[in-house]
Design goal:
The complex is a heterotrimer of chains A (204), B (251) and C (478). By secondary structure, chain A is an alpha+beta fold. Chain A is 25% helix and 20% strand. Chain A is built from four helices and nine strands. In chain A, the strands form three sheets. Chain A has a three-stranded antiparallel sheet, with no helix packed on it. In chain A, a hairpin with a 6-residue loop joins strand 6 and strand 7. A two-stranded antiparallel ribbon of chain C has the order 1-2. A two-stranded antiparallel sheet of chain C has the order 3-4. In chain C, a hairpin with a 2-residue loop joins strand 3 and strand 4. Classes of the chains: A alpha+beta (204), B alpha+beta (251), C mainly alpha (478).
């Protein structure tokens, strides 16, 4: 290397100053540059639009009937419960794992569903039709009384075919079943007496 | 002598213009106000009311209009067809097969029309601004309309009720034994519901909106760019001094 | 096996970690020394020497932005155009990634052209650096392929018709042409099949080749050491060295050129980001206006031109008309005559030259000018590979060449720009004079000049008195 003539101390401090300055500025710049790239991972407008709330007309549902709509790729059930089915809710309480829906309340049971029927209006039950065990969709078992795979005192509800979990007519899971939790109640609200909006609720 | 020269120049200009671009007149400058929210909102209204019946803007979502100061409720109330959701794209109501029957072709998608029409004569917005203001009645055409900026266009004059009917006036001159048509101005045949100034303003708003719609991120882009360049100037200053600090050693 | 170095237990944590790695991956540490801290580069580099590092930076930018674009892009003829607008509008910050990639593509060519020009100016391609130059030309060729295939992906009108025209060029090749074009396209016209295979090549195949070639380019360079603006070998047997054997005119790459390159990168980024944020279309040259119209196989736009970085070569393609063929035949005759009568070659070769010349002329008369246009266009790139063997000047660098060489290089650059400009414009852009299409005649002259510059270099590079090359590099402390 060529001869160096300048005082080493002076060089060192100016090098250090500018190294630190450039280093910090560079780090800030690199971080700022990374933000747009990482942001591209977030759901796009198209994903958000596809995940938008779904309007459902419930005027045509007869008592005891269930319809299914899709929201964010998931099946959402709307069941028009009969008075018998509503009455049955209080009769099975001691067979349920979490009758008052206390577990994971913020995830599974919004405020307006923290009641016996787990719904805004007792007559219409709205729930995400996905078993809380491993994600299969339970089948309807609305008929009361003894049936294959169900206890003799069956009060109506849902049976998951994959591993046998059972839920009552408010989506509450029975004790001693593979599924740990009650069915999720999605955000929803009434636009009118016959129109539901699944995916958005009043508090939002 | 001067008159002959000027006519020659004009003629040459017209001829050269026609040669260089077979698509008609020179383009007027479109007003550039992509930061003017009121103009953009007015333009959006005109667009939805007059254009979306036949054209689609298949890559533009209704809720993106929030960027120009509209609330979701305003969009739903004023700009959405009842069957649409606010997160959806501006699809067209017209069936492409019927379009082909009626117009001879599918009306092009308008999402990026303002970017695609730029050329030597000006920006795409300039073209659109000129195009929407140079329609004239022409009996020989199926739609009854022709256009100076896009001769023999298949699209009718959708805004004719606003502008009224008017035709271009030419002065015929002889130059070197050839007949040259020099464009002199417009003659209003029937009035529209708007004065020419109002119409130009409306079309200006519409074109401004089309310009914005072709790249909704453009205003953000410029804003962010200013900060990025400021930051980089500081960084460049640091790295310049850093470089000098090391190279002082080298003799 | 390398020596396992024990370190004192009193050493700092950092030193211990470093030692642990050095015992298990010594090559990495050797590489750092060989290529950075103990790679001695000439101290007199000027700004022309920044473009290699900048090219590497742009390569990284293209790869990173490319990775993120592929997360959202759809390589399907029906979905591609829409997916690009999806990136521009619906993906958060997608527009920025897209503009970085499109500006990066043009920036890559600007940087690479300047980088190559530096080689021309200072004789960086000459012995012993011929292989560095050859790897570089291979990189240039791959870059052109990469850009061409990438340009099809947005599936706009320019994408589609540009690809259609260029692939059809291959069909001009006699006998195998049409089948070759069919094989490239995977269909009778450019379509979904073409799009998918270009996507595969653009995203993975060519980038891998590019990365390998860049590594080879750098390894070859570091083996022989860098040239410099004075063209003086700082590591040669006669070059002065210090007590440790390091060249007196050299400085370790790290920290001096790392710090210098970081500064040049900052300056480059200012220009780069100014374009991205304020003029991403760049007047229609970086993002062409026609490409905002979805591809329509039934309607060709009024004026198709390749992207600006291909236009010098495109001009040459267009310049080869049946008239031009006569000029080219005359050149072949002149070349053969020179070979037979003037050149000092073994006697046996002379009849061979004559026979080959006659065969070539016969082919030039028989086969369409269209095919020869393709040959000329390809030849314009291939001739670059031969540069190390065409330059017979006794001095490497333009600084010590006879002054008129500088003017010749200037005219070369000027003609290259003219060819580029004419390639962007439609034919006939400069009108007519004396019944001649001016633009066409100029491109024809430009083509002949370009090839003449190279083919006649063995002759003109020897003309004139070079200046005395100093023993030590010219350097002013700063």
């Amino acid at each position: 290397m060529s001869e160096t003539l300048v005082d080493t101390n002076q060089i060192d401090s100016s090098k250090r100053t500018w190294l630190i300055a450039s280093g910090c500025a560079g780090a800030v710049g690199a971080g700022a540059a990374a933000i747009p790239f990482v942001s591209t991972f977030q759901p796009s407008e198209r994903a958000k639009a596809a995940g938008a709330a779904v309007e459902v007309d419930i005027g045509a549902i007869k008592p005891g009937e269930k319809i299914t709509v899709e929201w964010r790729g998931k099946p959402v059930w709307i069941v028009r419960r009969t008075p018998e089915q509503l009455a049955a809710l209080s009769q099975v309480t001691n067979q349920l794992a979490d009758p008052e829906s206390k577990r994971k309340q913020s995830d599974l049971t919004p405020i307006y569903a923290r009641n016996e029927g787990r719904s805004i209006k007792p007559e219409y039950f709205v729930a995400v039709g996905i078993c809380t065990h491993l994600g299969c969709s339970p089948s309807d078992k609305f008929q009361m009384g003894p049936q294959p795979s169900l206890p003799d005192d069956w009060h109506g509800g849902f049976l998951c075919p994959c591993h046998g979990s059972t839920f009552d007519m408010a989506g509450r899971v029975y004790k001693n079943k593979p599924a740990p939790d009650n069915l999720e109640i999605p955000p929803y609200m009434y636009l009118s007496d016959s129109r539901l909006l699944i995916g958005e609720d009043k508090k939002a | 002598m001067k008159k002959i020269l000027s006519i020659l120049l004009l003629a040459f200009g017209l001829v050269a213009g026609a040669q260089a671009n077979t698509e008609g007149v020179a383009w007027d400058k479109a007003p550039n106000k992509t930061n003017d929210l009121a103009a953009l909102q007015n333009g959006a209204k005109v667009f939805v009311n007059y254009c979306l019946n036949c054209h689609a803007a298949a890559f533009m979502r209704f809720n993106r209009l929030k960027d120009i100061g509209l609330t979701e409720q305003q969009i739903k109330d004023n700009l959405l067809f009842p069957t649409d959701k606010v997160g959806e794209t501006m699809k067209v109501s017209m069936d492409p097969k019927q379009a082909k029957e009626w117009f001879g072709g599918n009306p092009p998608d308008l999402t990026v029309i303002a970017r695609s029409r730029s050329g030597e004569k000006g920006t795409g917005a300039d073209y659109l601004y000129t195009y929407l203001r140079t329609y004239y009645p022409d009996d020989t055409k199926a739609t009854g309309w022709n256009n100076l900026a896009y001769p023999n266009v298949a699209m009718p004059h959708v805004l004719w009720q606003l502008q009224g009917k008017r035709k271009p006036v030419y002065e015929v001159a002889e130059e070197h034994g050839e007949e040259v048509h020099i464009f002199k101005g417009w003659e209003q045949i029937t009035p529209g519901t708007m004065t020419p100034e109002q119409y130009d303003q409306t079309v200006g708003d519409l074109v401004n909106y089309l310009q914005w719609m072709s790249e909704p991120a453009q205003n953000t882009r410029v804003r962010v760019g200013v900060w990025v360049l400021l930051f980089l100037s500081v960084l460049t200053f640091f790295t310049w001094r850093l470089n000098a600090a090391f190279w002082k050693d080298i003799k | 096996m390398a020596v396992f170095k024990e370190i004192s237990p009193n050493a700092s944590a950092g030193e211990k970690v470093s030692n642990w790695f050095e015992n298990r991956f010594p090559t990495a540490f050797d590489a750092y020394r060989v290529h950075m801290s103990e790679y001695y580069a000439p101290k007199n580099f000027n700004f022309w020497y920044a473009f290699g590092a900048l090219a590497m930076l742009v390569l990284v930018i293209q790869i990173v932005t490319g990775i993120f674009l592929v997360m959202h892009y759809k390589p399907d003829a029906a979905l591609a155009f829409g997916s690009v607008e999806y990136i521009m509008r619906d993906v958060p910050w997608g527009w920025l990634i897209r503009y970085m990639h499109s500006t990066g593509a043009s920036a890559f060519f600007i940087v690479v052209y300047l980088h190559m020009f530096r080689g021309l100016l200072y004789g960086s391609y000459r012995k012993p650096r011929e292989l560095v130059w050859i790897f570089g030309c291979a990189i240039f060729l791959c870059l052109m392929a990469e850009a061409f295939m990438g340009y099809l992906l947005p599936w706009g009108q320019m994408s589609y018709w540009g690809a259609q025209v260029i692939v059809n060029l291959f069909s001009a090749i006699p006998f195998v042409g049409p089948d070759l074009a069919l094989l490239i396209r995977g269909d009778y016209v450019v379509g979904d099949a073409t799009l998918n295979r270009f996507f595969s090549f653009h995203v993975i195949a060519v980038p891998l080749v590019l990365l390998g070639l860049v590594m080879a380019h750098l390894l070859a360079l570091h083996d022989v050491g860098s040239n410099n603006p004075d063209g003086i070998e700082i590591k040669g047997p006669k070059a002065p060295k210090d007590a440790k054997g390091h060249p007196l005119d050299g400085i370790p790459f790290h920290p001096y050129y790392t710090v210098h390159d970081i500064f040049m990168v900052s300056v480059f980024l200012m220009v780069f980001t100014a374009i991205i944020f304020f003029a991403p279309e760049f007047g229609g040259y970086f993002l062409e206006y026609n490409n905002f119209i979805p591809a329509d196989p039934l309607k060709t736009p009024l004026h198709i031109a390749p992207v600006w970085y291909f236009t010098p070569f495109y001009s040459m393609l267009r310049a080869i008309t049946s008239e031009m063929m006569y000029a080219l035949i005359a050149c072949v005759v002149a070349g053969a005559a020179f070979g037979i009568f003037k050149a000092q070659l073994p006697k046996i070769l002379k009849p061979v030259i004559a026979v080959v010349a006659v065969a070539v002329i016969a082919m030039m008369l028989a086969i369409d000018a269209k095919f020869w246009g393709v040959v000329v266009m390809g030849g314009a790139v291939i001739i670059l590979f031969f540069l190390p063997w065409l330059d017979y000047s006794p001095v490497k660098s333009i600084r010590y060449r006879p002054d008129w060489h500088k003017y010749l290089y200037g005219i070369f650059v000027f003609m290259f720009f003219i060819l580029a400009y004419l390639g962007v414009k439609p034919p006939g852009v400069w009108g007519e004079a004396f019944g001649q299409d001016i633009a066409q005649r100029v491109s024809q002259f430009g083509t002949l000049f370009y090839f003449g510059f190279f083919i006649l270099m063995p002759w003109w590079s020897r003309i004139g008195e070079p200046k005395t090359v100093p023993a030590r590099v010219t350097f002013a402390a700063h």
